[in-house]
Design goal:
This protein has about 450 residues and is of the alpha/beta class. It has a single domain, classed as FAD/NAD(P)-binding domain (3-Layer(bba) Sandwich), CATH 3.50.50. The protein is about 30% helix and about 25% strand. The strands form five sheets. An eight-stranded mixed beta sheet has the order 5-6-4-14-15-16-13-19. A six-stranded mixed beta sheet has the order 8-2-1-12-21-20. A three-stranded antiparallel beta sheet has the order 9-10-11, with no helix packed on it. Helix 1 packs parallel to helix 6, helix 1 packs parallel to helix 13 and helix 3 packs across helix 13. It is globular and about 65 Å long. The protein starts with 19 loop residues before the first strand and ends in a 28-residue tail after the last helix.
Amino acid sequence: MGPLLDPVDSDSTLPRQVDVVVIGGGIIGVCATLFLARRGISVALCEKGVIGGEQSSRNWGWCRTIGRDLRELPLAMESLRLWAGMNALAEAETGFRPSGVAYLCDDAAEVAHYESWLARAADQHRDYQRVAHVLSAGEVERVAPGTTNAYAGALHAPADGRAEPQKAAPAIAQAARRSGAAILTGCAVRGLDLAAGRVAGVVTERGRIACSSVVLAGGAWSRLLCSTAGVTLPQLKVLASVLRTNPVAGGPDTALWATGFGIRRRLDGGFTIANGSSSRVDIVPDSFRFLRQFLPIARAEWKYLRPRLGRRFLEEWGEPSQLAPDRPTVFERVRILDPEPEIALSEGALATVKKAFPALQGATVAQHWAGLIDVTPDAVPVISAVETVPGFFIATGFSGHGFGIGPGAGRLVADLVSGGEPVVDPAPFRLSRFRDGEKIRIESGF
């Protein structure tokens, strides 16, 4: 069972026509919907399950700028600015707190690695010189009070923060509704309706909605829905397991990454904990379909990946290559992706945390869950118009970074759809980079 979400009721009436349909009610979809609606654009969000039901409620809840691929850094900085005002904008609790985020270093080599990244970030973005800094071994106590580990240093961004994934997307969706958007849950989109090669609407399980633009923010489902419009999106999925503890006194306020664990404090007094150094990758038919494009990142990240050939291969092999808009699809059959968590992996992370922070010896597990992260060949998202299908926009492939940069990504989507001045340069996120001859660059931060 996934995390407990704040509920969002569905609008009862399917609109016959809007300017924009957003597909997917995760953090990217709800943010795009909010920023579109606030511009006076009529928009309907269609979610096959519930708002935030998949990876947008299953992530760590970090809102960070440090450790980003430098192509993402401007978007991360804009997102942090938006997160700081999100409670006021949503008129609800999203859980955001500027608690700081730090990466702890085991040795001098890690310190040098972070110093190099920080120098490149500051060189590319002068404003970043005021955002992050490297702590010495003697200064680590400031971000990791009470640790018994002898860390060599840390990369620290004091204004980076944390939010509550189970609260944020629902709160933002409700704000979008108050701004005039239609929020339709339990309403799967079966495919795009095209006329003369461009978007004319979408076909949902509840009927057709006419529109001139569609934003696909479907997370792990995006590649499949793209295929219904003849668009190839190179995308695979990574399983990430997480646990939360019951409330416990003590422990760090700063969100921390270290060898063997990632930890952040929750509003309820517990902690969200995971192993950030190991990820399960199921081998599926798309693994072979996109093998050439994903080889560079597989080589670069191999020590963190654990491939597995199992039932997911057969499940995806059995899916039809084409979806029929007049018949139920997999989107209706699987309302919420709720994969089995790797309990031993998460509990191993908890054990490592307890060794590092004796004050947390009394922490007990309240819940385990897992989610499927949608990844691209360079671990950078696609936020882009689709040149071959006018009116079609994609915002997906956030590669585990989507929650933190969700507000900025939603703002950028709204800019692209409405023809406004983009809040950041969208060129690094264009879909065409995977087919225009540009070499795939792996700069996935840490």
